[in-house]
Structures are given as C-alpha cells and as structure tokens.
C-alpha cells in the first residue's frame, strides 16, 4: 500500500518540529528514515499513524487520508507498529499479546499464524513468558511478531535496533526486511542508527524537521 | 476487553482479592439482612393470615402471638375451654380455632385442635384422612418429610414444646397414630402435628387422673425463661390460679385437677365475621375476663418495627462497607491507570478506540464488583444454612436458603454500579489520555 506524506508541518508556537515534509513510499517499499534524536522522527511517525494532527499537510495511506479522526480505524486495519520501548502489554504473556493484537486489529484470532510467527522470530520457547521475563532482544522480536500477526499493509518500526549490538542489529534488520518482503508489506523504519543504512534501498534523512535532499 | 480486564486483575491478585473481599462482606451482610427481613415478614404475614385476634392467658401479647400463631415461644398460660363456646356463639365471630399445646415430637409441636384449624390454614389431606379420635395425628408436610413418618406409624410425644433429647419426659403410655399427612401450605401448619385437643387433655391427666402424671416431677427449665420482663412460669401459675384451681402445671400444659373441672385450652384463634367484632370483642375480653386478646397485625407490626430498627442500623453499616469497597476499587484502578499508562497507550496505538480502552477499565471495576457480589451472595447463603442448622428459631420460621429474589437482583445491580462508578474516574483519565504524549515521554 502506498504511503504519501505531503507538506507536513508541525509547530509548537514559533518552533517548527516538522517543516514541509514530503515523501512517498510505493507499495512494498522498504525505507529508512534516519535522523538524530530531536530531529522530528517520532513526531512524523505520530502524524503518519494518525496519533497527532499536523498544522499543515496531509498523509495518505492508499486512497485514505490519515487524520486524528480516523487514525484508530486506519491503524487497526492497516498498520503494524513496533516501538522502541512500548512493546507489549505487561499483564499478558507473549502469545496473549499477539492474540490480543489480532483481536483488536483484525477482529479475529489466527492461532496458527501466531505460532508460525513466533517460530519465525525464534521466540516460540518464550510464548508463555511475561514481558518482564524477556531479554531486550526477545522483547524486540516479540514486538515485531505482534506487529506482523495483524498482516499490516504498512509496518512502522521506531528505533528497532537502538539497544542492540551489531550482531543483533543485523538479525533484526534482516528479519524486518525478510518478513516485510514475504508479507508484501510496505516498511518504514525510523532510526538514528546509521548501521541500518546499508540494508535499505531507500533512505531519507530528517534534520531539524526537514528532509535532507 | 473482558479477557484483558481479567488479565489485569490477575496481574495484581492481592489488591483484587482484598477489594473482592470488602465487597463480598458487605454484600453478604446486605443479603442476610434482606433475606432474613423479607422472609420473616412474609412468613409472619402468611402464618397470621385469617387470624384477626388471639385469645389467651394474660401476659405479653407478643408472646401470645408468637406462641399461638408462629409457634416459636412458650405460651402465656391457659384459658377455660368454655370460652371457646362463648366465642363461637358470638355473632361477630366467623371462626374460633382452639389450640392446646404442651408436647412435642422430636421438636415438632403437637397441637390439640379441631377441624376448624384446617379451614383456617386452608389445608387438605395429601394422604390418609383427617383425625377423628383422640391420639390420631395428622402431620404437617415438613414434619412428615423430616421424620419420614408413614401412615399407621405410632409415636410418643415428649413433654414441653422443645425437643427432649434425654427422653425423660416422654408420654410413653400414650402413643399417637399417624392417620394423615397434610399438603404443603408454606405456613406454620407444615411444621405442626395436629391431633384432637382431647388427646392433649388425656395425655396430661384428664381421663387418667392427674396423679398418674404429675407435672411437678418434670423439669420445665425451658418454660422459665424471661420474656419482656415476665417470667412465664410465675405468670402462667397466676393465670391458672385465676382460671382454675389447677396448681403446679407449667404454661401451655392443659391443667385439670379432676374430671369435674373445666378443661383448658392454651389459646383460641379468632376470625371476625364483620368489622363490629374488631371493636367489641377485644375490649370485652380484656376488660371483662381474666383472659387477654392480642391482635396479630399489631403485634407483628411491633415485632417488625423492633427488628426493623436493628436491621436498618446494620444495613447502613453494610452499605458503608460497600462504599468502602468501591473506594478501594477506585484507588486501585487510579493507580493502575497511572502505572499502566504505557500499556494503554500501546492499546490505543494498536487501534483500540478511546471508548474501548475506557470500557476495559470500567470492566475491571465491574468484574471486581461482580466477584464481590457473587462471593458475598454465596457466603450469605452458606451462613444462612449454618444458622438454620444451629438456631432452632430460624428453622422454626422456615428460613429458606438459596433464594434469589428481586431484592437481591437490585442489590447486585447496585453493587455492580458501585464498581462501575469507582472505575469511572480512572477510566476517564485513560479516555482522555494522549497516546502520542505517552509515547513521547517513554
């Protein structure tokens, strides 16, 4: 599904966090949004997800314009999101987290897909573990699994490798790309981690709220 | 939403258990008070239906009503048998039912009466036939069920109105024969053994001579308790002195010194033919005889008023407990809303609407309240079962357990409302939460 961001501006008073951000991701594209902390990456992701309304500009996912009004619906039906810190619901084990995501986002449970995804991400042995029992890497993989089991059209990952070493960074990057490829999903990864640059065909750099040319 | 709410509740088991316990205690108290109050008043009303007046020996009118209609207390004394005929001759009296008490069989009172008793309680014979001769007995439905008595079986009554476990006071020489069993009526009649009043006279010496059965030999501790400041034994003796020369007999025991004396009854249940009876007869009895008349409606109302004051106090306490339970849920959920902000933001990001997240928190409050209400109701029923087994009066009142009436339904809905209300503010905080800000903070 195509993601089109056009002329997005977010400002707090005179301070512009995002300024005229425009880009397009074609269906099944895998793109990296690079930028240091404070460059506006998270704000841009919030706007794309419909969690924040921009002062100007539009976001379209397919033929639907994303706004705060329909953000819930679009996130539910089309998006899988992996956050750096907010990964899993603490009261549920890994399997229940995945099933909850399916139930919330698709209205149905597909236990076979859940088990398959856990296997693919090599965390099937942690399916009954609670989030606080997981290592950093396991939690990150569980969060990716949760985002994938809803079969999203757009998979967004925010700083998926920030706390990982080189080997695990490599693994997560390969995993995201491989799974997105397999599922035919458009992938947008926002990070300050330059190590990922080599893995992606399309890279954008966000600096002080503007996309660098 | 329900499974998520359950997961959150299971995630903090101690807090959940304490909140449930607080609510359960209050619900148990409220259900107990409600059921005891309702069942007692229903029972009192049902048992007293059709009885406009009770005529008995002077003493506490409440005691007279309790002993003659509800069969849960000792009688005040005896009245002359001739008073029955006098009452029946009065044009304002539609029905006068004689009662002769004094004995029991395994705790069930043996009531000497005549066929008018069946009319009063609108009973009919389920099996067998009505009594026609002395020492023929018709059992109430509960008595038959509990004792598993069959037609033709014989039993011996024990002296006194409560069960004689020692057997020392058995009237061994005067066995009763079961000739009939009554249909269940849902009234006190179910727990009585009916026999002609002559049986009770015979057992206590009219035909066999009083020397053969000297009541002075019996220990009547159960009759000597103090009630409303009166001592039954003393009181009944004074009544007996006034009504007949009999001495030394305990209250409720028909007392006749010899066959030439007027035999006695314990009391007479009167139904009026018309309203004029209600004005004239009680005044006549109270002023011109040594008997007293008691109006069941008045005494029952007085009893319920006395009970009502205590019940109201306890009810206020129980509601305070329920509100405390609600506050505990409120505090727990408010803390939860703060500590689980991240989780809830994640759910919002996953696409859960504000309303769904709001409902999840409300559901936690409702589930806690539901568990409290359920356990409370079960505890109340269990306590009532235990109380019925341990307290004879409750058993005599026919206290029913495992009853779920409209009152309980309203109570449970109110408790669920408390749970929802307690969750409302935490849920509102979650509803108005901005997930983007939470994400930015994290």
How would you sum up this structure in a few lines?
The complex is a heterodimer of chains A (213) and B (442). With 213 residues, chain A is an alpha/beta fold.
Average pLDDT over all residues of chain B: 80
The residue ranges of chain A in which pLDDT falls below 50 over 5 or more consecutive positions are none
The CATH superfamily of chain A bears the name P-loop containing nucleotide triphosphate hydrolases
- Topology of chain A as a string of helices (H) and strands (E): EEEHEEHEHHHEHEEE
Which structural class do you get from the secondary structure elements of chain A?
Answer: alpha/beta
Ranges of chain B where pLDDT stays below 50 over 5 or more residues in a row are 207-260
Give a short account of the largest sheet of chain B.
6 strands, mixed, barrel
Overall spatial form of chain A: globular
> What is the mean predicted local confidence, pLDDT of chain A?
89
Query: What CATH architecture label of chain A applies?
Result: 3-Layer(aba) Sandwich
Classify the fold: give the CATH topology of chain A: Rossmann fold
Given helix and strand content, the structural type of chain B is alpha+beta
Q: Say how many strands of chain A there are.
A: 10
Query: Biggest protein-protein interface?
Result: A-B, 26 and 26 residues
Give your account of this protein's structure.
- The complex is a heterodimer of chains A (213) and B (442).
- Chain A has 213 residues and is an alpha/beta fold.
- Chain A has a single domain (3-92, 151-211), classed as Rossmann fold, CATH 3.40.50.300.
- Chain A has helices at residues 41-49, 71-78, 94-106, 111-120, 136-148, 166-183; strands spanning 3-12, 15-25, 30-34, 56-61, 64-66, 79-82, 154-158, 186-191, 202-207, 210-211.
- In chain A, the strands form 2 sheets. In chain A, strands 6-7-8-3-9-10 form a 6-stranded mixed sheet, with helices on both faces.
- In chain A, strand 9 and strand 10 (210-211) form a beta hairpin.
- In chain A, helix 3 packs parallel to helix 5 and helix 5 (136-148) packs parallel to helix 6 (166-183).
- The longest helix of chain A is centred in the C-terminal third of the chain and has 18 residues, at 166-183.
- Chain B has 442 residues and is an alpha+beta fold.
- Chain B has 15 helices and 14 strands.
- In chain B, a hairpin with a 2-residue loop joins strand 10 and strand 11 (230-231).
- The radius of gyration of chain B is 30 Å and the shape is elongated.
- The two termini of chain B are 24 Å apart.
- The A-B interface holds A 42, 46, 49, 51-52, 72-73, 75-77, 79, 81, 83, 85-92, 96, 100-101, 104-105 and B 3-4, 7-8, 10-11, 340, 342-343, 345-354, 356, 435-436, 438-440, 442.
């Amino acid at each position: 599904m195509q993601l089109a961001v056009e002329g997005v501006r977010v400002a707090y008073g005179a301070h512009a966090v995002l300024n005229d951000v425009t880009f397009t991701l074609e269906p099944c594209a895998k793109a990296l949004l690079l930028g240091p902390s404070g460059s506006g990456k998270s704000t841009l992701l919030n706007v794309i997800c419909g969690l924040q309304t921009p002062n100007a500009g539009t976001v379209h996912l397919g033929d639907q314009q994303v706004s705060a009004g329909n953000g819930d619906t679009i996130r539910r039906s089309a998006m899988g999101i992996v956050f750096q810190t907010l990964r899993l619901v603490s009261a549920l084990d890994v399997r229940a987290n995945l099933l909850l995501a399916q139930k919330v986002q698709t209205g149905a449970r597909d236990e076979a897909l859940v088990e398959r995804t856990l296997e693919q991400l090599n965390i099937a042995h942690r399916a009954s573990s609670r989030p606080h029992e997981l290592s950093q890497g396991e939690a990150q993989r569980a969060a990716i699994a949760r985002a994938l089991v809803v079969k999203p059209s757009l998979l967004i990952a925010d700083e998926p490798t920030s706390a990982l070493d080189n080997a695990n960074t490599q693994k997560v990057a390969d995993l995201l790309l491989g799974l997105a490829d397999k599922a035919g999903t458009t992938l947008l990864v926002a990070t300050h981690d330059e190590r990922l640059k080599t893995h992606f065909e399309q890279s954008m750099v966000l600096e002080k709220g503007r996309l660098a040319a | 939403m329900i499974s998520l709410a359950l997961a959150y509740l299971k995630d903090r088991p101690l807090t959940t258990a304490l909140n449930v316990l607080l609510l359960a205690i209050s619900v148990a108290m409220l259900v107990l008070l409600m059921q005891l109050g309702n069942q007692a008043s229903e029972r009192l009303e049902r048992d007293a239906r059709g009885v406009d007046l009770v005529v008995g020996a002077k003493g506490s009118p409440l005691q007279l009503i309790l002993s003659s209609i509800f069969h849960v207390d000792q009688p005040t004394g005896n009245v002359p048998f001739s008073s029955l005929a006098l009452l029946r001759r009065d044009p304002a009296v539609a029905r006068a039912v004689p009662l002769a008490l004094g004995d029991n069989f395994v705790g069930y009172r043996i009531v000497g009466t005549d066929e008018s008793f069946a009319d009063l309680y609108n009973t009919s014979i389920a099996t067998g036939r009505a009594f026609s001769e002395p020492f023929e007995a018709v059992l109430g439905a509960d008595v038959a069920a509990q004792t598993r008595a069959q037609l033709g079986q014989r039993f011996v009554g024990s002296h006194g109105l409560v069960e004689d476990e020692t057997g020392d006071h058995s009237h061994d020489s005067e066995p009763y024969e079961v000739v009939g069993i009554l249909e269940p009526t849902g009234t006190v009649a179910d727990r009585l053994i009916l026999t002609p009043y002559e049986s009770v006279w015979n057992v206590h010496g009219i035909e066999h001579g009083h020397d053969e059965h000297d009541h002075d030999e019996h220990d009547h501790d159960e009759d000597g308790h103090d009630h409303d400041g009166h001592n039954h034994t003393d009181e009944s003796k004074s009544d007996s002195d006034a009504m007949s020369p009999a001495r030394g007999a305990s209250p409720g025991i028909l007392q006749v010194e010899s066959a030439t004396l007027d035999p006695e009854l314990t009391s007479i249940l009167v139904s009026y033919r018309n309203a004029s009876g209600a004005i004239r007869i009680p005044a006549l009895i109270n002023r011109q005889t040594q008997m007293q008349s008691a109006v069941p409606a008045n005494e029952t109302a007085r009893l319920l008023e006395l009970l009502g004051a205590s019940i109201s106090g306890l009810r206020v306490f129980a509601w305070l407990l329920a509100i405390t339970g609600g506050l505990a849920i409120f505090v727990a959920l408010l803390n939860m809303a703060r500590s689980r902000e991240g989780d809830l933001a994640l759910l919002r990001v996953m696409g859960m609407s504000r309303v769904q997240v709001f409902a999840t928190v409300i559901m936690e409050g409702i589930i806690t309240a539901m568990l409290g209400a359920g356990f409370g109701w079960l505890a109340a029923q269990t306590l009532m079962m235990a109380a019925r087994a341990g307290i004879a009066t409750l058993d005599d009142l026919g206290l029913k357990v495992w009853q779920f009436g409209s009152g309980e339904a309203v109570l449970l809905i109110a408790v669920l409302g408390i749970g929802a209300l307690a969750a409302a503010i935490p849920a509102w905080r979650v509803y108005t939460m901005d997930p983007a800000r939470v994400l930015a903070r994290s």
